[in-house]
Specification:
The complex is a heterodimer of chains A (261) and B (282). Chain A is an alpha/beta fold and 261 residues long. Chain A is 34% helix and 24% strand. In chain A, the strands form two sheets. A six-stranded mixed sheet of chain A has the order 5-6-7-3-8-9, with helices on both faces. In chain A, strands 2-1-4 form a three-stranded antiparallel sheet, with helices on one face. Chain B has one domain: ABC transporter involved in vitamin B12 uptake, BtuC (Orthogonal Bundle). With 282 residues, chain B is mostly helical. Helices cover 80% and strands 0% of the residues of chain B. Chains A and B meet through strand 5, helix 2 and helix 4 of A and helix 2, helix 7, helix 8 and helix 11 of B.
Chain lengths: 261, 282
């Protein structure tokens, strides 16, 4: 599995990340083919967020992150990123139009958004069932709505690799399944590679092609079914979460327990 | 000089007693230049939760003055800017290298920098000479200083035009900004340095004690009213200019310190905006 690469893929080879003396990521290898969705799961502190931030180029690393199309020289992939939660206060005077415009254009939004630009913003959002949110302040959006807006930004322009950071947190079950469906459409339509970091084992397993169990290094990798029945997973997550992931209808109560619903 | 004479003549047309004095005309021009500048910078200060940070920058002027005096500088502006810029960068480094929260880091730095300045300036009981920096005196502003403010205003506007969106994105979510190829380190550092320079240069006008409120108040008031970033910017500028002009003129009739009077009016605007915002906008 590790060495296969389709007609195009993103390759992460022998990735090592250290903070001070601590090894956070140890010889991580990850190949994502275009059109493939990979779920990365693991306990808290396993290095999931670090992995994403390293791919984004925020953290110094040893190893290689490259994008390759068959027969061509490899380069850094174009990345779209959907952050977990916006960590700023809800009173912020930034509208959805402002946020999208500031991300996709250099026209300074403090001077106002031109007609042309707001038309572009509308087009971008309409692909993600979010055009009705244009005038809302971002603090007024539900978790799922915000996520679709962020996904619209991440897909403009179309990336080669899409990173999704904990899409299940702060989003209700309905919003989450809509989100997963949109992501599924995207990868089919645009043939992009997707890495999805999540706690939501049960929800994600029917949408991903491969599941990676990360705990500093890759502990297990394979089809969701295989990985989910792996003993290492039980060890990593503890028995309680394991039981829940076997019973998807308990998913929402688990969400509440962890304070994310 | 031609420009300033034209200004004098224009203001002279107004039918008020204070328009006879050159110092009032200078002060008015300075207010018209500085207040929108502070409003602009303030919008990002408030969004980035840097209010305490800029307060520390303002107070670092004490140490800047002290070091300039020690070294026998004729113009203290240079040493003030140097101390503020070094401090701003040092705080950012300290924040990244310790586990302490930002307000602790700022609290510690604040205490240190103010104490250092006072210790140096109070040698042989000389501190009284420097109290003018605490309150500031906008009426003492010279045409040459106004020219400098004009230059700074142009620089800030150009910076805002180029880096505006990158700053917004960085304040929303640095990782998101990075994924859009924004160099967040460059953005944060350049904004901090610009802020340090503007704050310190304006100390002479409004004083160390209240300079921070001129940055924070208009933007904070505007946040109560605005739903878009453009409205946020526009309201902040309007509130800042209005309270600047009103405060200056009222201080002339009351015989009070102009800077503090301006701040009082800005506080009033904040109060009104909070009431209005609750009632109509939220």
């Amino acid at each position: 599995m590790q060495n296969t690469c389709g007609h195009c893929c993103t390759k992460i080879d022998n990735l090592n990340v250290k903070f001070g003396g601590n090894i956070i990521l140890d010889k991580v290898n990850l190949h994502v083919n275009c059109g493939e969705v990979i779920g990365v799961v693991g306990p808290n502190g396993a290095g999931k967020t670090t992995l994403l931030r390293t791919i984004l180029g925020e953290i110094p690393y040893q190893g290689r992150i490259a994008f390759q199309i068959e027969g061509s020289v490899s380069k850094k992939p174009k990345i779209g990123y959907v952050p977990q939660k916006l960590q700023f206060d809800l009173g912020s005077p930034i509208s959805v139009t402002d946020l999208v415009a500031s991300a996709i254009s250099h026209q300074p939004i403090w001077a106002g958004v031109s007609k042309d630009l707001s038309e572009r913003v509308k087009n971008v959002l309409s692909l993600f069932s979010a055009e009705h949110l244009l005038k809302r302040r971002i603090g007024e959006l539900s978790g799922g709505e915000l996520q679709r807006v962020l996904l619209a930004i991440a897909m403009t322009p179309e990336p080669e690799l899409l990173l999704l950071d904990e899409p299940a947190s702060g989003v209700d079950v309905k919003g989450l399944s809509l989100f997963y469906r949109i992501v599924d459409d995207l990868r089919k339509k645009y043939d992009i590679a997707v890495i999805l970091v999540t706690h939501d084992l049960a929800g994600v397993s029917s949408y991903v092609d491969r599941l990676i169990l990360l705990n500093r290094s890759v502990i297990a990798e394979g089809e969701p079914k295989e990985v989910l029945s792996d003993e290492k997973l039980i060890k990593a997550f503890g028995a309680s979460l394991w039981n829940i992931s076997l019973l998807p209808n308990l998913k929402s109560s688990e969400g509440n327990k962890n304070g994310r619903n | 000089m031609a420009v300033i004479n034209l200004w004098y003549r224009l203001v002279g047309i107004l039918p008020f007693g204070w328009t006879h004095y050159a110092f009032m005309k200078n002060a008015l021009l300075a207010v018209l230049l500085v207040s929108p500048l502070f409003a602009l910078l303030g919008t990002m200060v408030v969004n980035n939760r840097m209010a305490f940070f800029t307060d520390v920058l303002g107070h670092s002027a004490l140490t800047g003055i002290a070091i300039g005096v020690l070294l026998g500088f004729h113009d203290l502006t240079l040493s003030m800017i140097a101390v503020a810029v070094i401090l701003a960068v040092a705080i950012n480094l300290l924040k990244d290298s310790t586990k302490a929260s930002m307000d602790t880091v700022l609290g510690v730095t604040f205490a240190f920098i103010v104490a250092l300045g006072i210790v140096i300036l109070s040698r042989q009981g000389g501190f009284v000479r420097y109290t003018k920096y605490l309150i500031g005196d906008i009426l003492a502003v010279t045409p040459k200083e106004i020219a400098w403010f004009f230059l700074i205003a142009v620089v800030v506007l150009v910076y805002w035009y180029i880096a505006g969106n990158a700053m917004v994105l960085t304040s929303v979510n640095p990782s998101l900004a990075r994924s859009r190829r924004v160099n967040t380190f460059l953005i944060e550092t350049s904004f901090t340095v610009l802020l340090a320079i503007v704050v310190v240069v304006s100390i002479r006008l409004v004083g160390i004690l209240i300079i921070n409120s001129l940055l924070v108040l208009p933007a904070a008031a505007s946040r109560n009213l605005a739903r878009t970033f453009r409205a946020y910017t526009v309201w902040a500028v309007i509130i800042s200019i209005l309270s600047g002009i009103t405060g200056l003129i009222v201080s002339y009739y009351w015989g009070t310190a102009s800077g503090a009077t301006i701040v009082l009016f800005a506080s009033g605007c904040y109060g009104i905006s909070a009431l209005l915002g609750r009632r109509f906008i939220k």
